[in-house]
Amino acid sequence: MEMIVEDIVIVGAGIAGLATSLGLHRLGVASLVLESSEKLRVDGFGLTTWTNAWKALDALAVGHILRPQHLRLTKNVTTSLIMVQETSTTSLRGTAKHCGDIEVRCVLRQLMVEALANELPNGTVRFSSKLIAIEDSGFSKILHLQDGTTIKTKVLIGCDGIKSVVAKWLGFRGTSFTGRYCVRGCFNNNDGHRLQPSFMHFFGKGFRSGFLPCDNKTVYWFLTWTPNNEELEMAKSPNKMKQFVLSKLEKAPSDIRSIIEKTEPEDIFTAPLKYRPQWELIRGNISKGNVCVAGDAFHPMAPDLGQGGCCSLEDAVVLARCVAQVFNRKNNDYDNNIGEEKEKDLYKRVEAALEKYANERKWRSIDISVTSLVVGFIQQGDLDFVSHLRDKYLASFLAHLMVNKSDFDCGRLNIVTPYS
């Protein structure tokens, strides 16, 4: 089988992979995205999309596509189901310290993935292309796919999620288990849901739950908790998980319980929450030579700040900006048949670009990942004194912390290709 030759290969057509490819495209640089599935992976439900993510989406020139499809949330309301009362209300409007207007929406994952993919040139994503091995070949990498295809590339970017082949090649270990699980659901009703455009948090003894309207018909909801052995068995059944969530939210308002009751079993999904420990992010190789990782392949994190997808979009913009400085044809004279000296020079420039990306993203990712882990421990309130502190004193602080951590701008792209 003939070897395929590409300048830049991105592994994974999730949010990080598609956004990185689109960022490069906006800067006049082509890439190939390898996706193991037969079609775009649009599984998953809602993504809490904070101000920092909208900055990235605007840099990629897709923010204007997604805004009209989703409600802008106006406030964060926390309710203690132990005290059976609201404990804080935090505005999600106003002006942030660094990034201007605060903007929060719950974006349906399918619509975000499709918005990114639809802006890419035809043929950018190669489906049914599962990466199984990476081989050094001079100043390039040889990628071996499950179907027998081999691809030679000057740059390899791993956006292949928490089980990343690329991250493993870089030396990262597998992800760590937080000890917690999350059940997620998506309610859709053509008659509407009648909820206010608010991020509604409900805290109880040993759990936290949230409800976010995506549009006038759709609500994304979740509940996190630390399961016992019996509950681990229940987690395999969507119907049992629905009843479990209803039991936890027995003191919640009737309109909230109704959302759970009317959610179809096929729209309920339960999974363990995993993360990459901060010491791995500190000591590990985010980049090495002409290889790097982004998104969940880089920094899988607990969901308690709602920043996983947001940080993936930040990664994409920064990474595209760094790599494009090397490959933009206006500034570089190269082709696939350059001599050894030029090939070595290109490799060194790629290496420097990926190191710049890694240095820019490292501490931001560590900050968000560690904060998410700590916030999750407090919000879930497994211990009595923690849940007491949370409900009596920390609810407003935690809500403001979520807003403050989203006050970040990853910067713009100097777009050189048309949007359409």
Oligomer: single chain
Rg of Cα set: 22 Å
Residue share in helix: 25-40%
CATH architecture: 3-Layer(bba) Sandwich
Key terms:
7-stranded mixed sheet; disordered C terminus; 12 helices; about 425 residues; FAD/NAD(P)-binding domain; elongated; about 35% helix; alpha/beta
Structure description:
The protein is an alpha/beta fold. The protein has one domain (4-405): FAD/NAD(P)-binding domain (3-Layer(bba) Sandwich). Helices cover 37% and strands 26% of the residues. It has twelve helices and 19 strands. The protein has helices spanning 15-26, 51-59, 63-66, 109-118, 165-170, 229-234, 238-248, 254-261, 278-283, 308-327, 340-380, 384-405; strands spanning 4-11, 32-34, 46-49, 75-80, 85-91, 95-96, 100-101, 105-108, 125-126, 131-137, 140-145, 150-158, 176-188, 198-204, 207-213, 218-225, 268-275, 287-288, 291-293. The strands form four sheets. Strands 1, 2, 9, 10, 11, 12, 18 and 19 form an eight-stranded mixed sheet that branches. Strands 5-4-14-15-16-13-17 form a seven-stranded mixed sheet, sandwiched between helices. Strands 3-8 form a two-stranded antiparallel ribbon. Helix 1 (15-26) packs parallel to helix 4 (109-118), helix 2 runs parallel beside helix 10 (308-327) and helix 11 (340-380) crosses helix 12. The longest helix has 41 residues, at 340-380. It starts with a strand and ends in a 15-residue tail after the last helix.
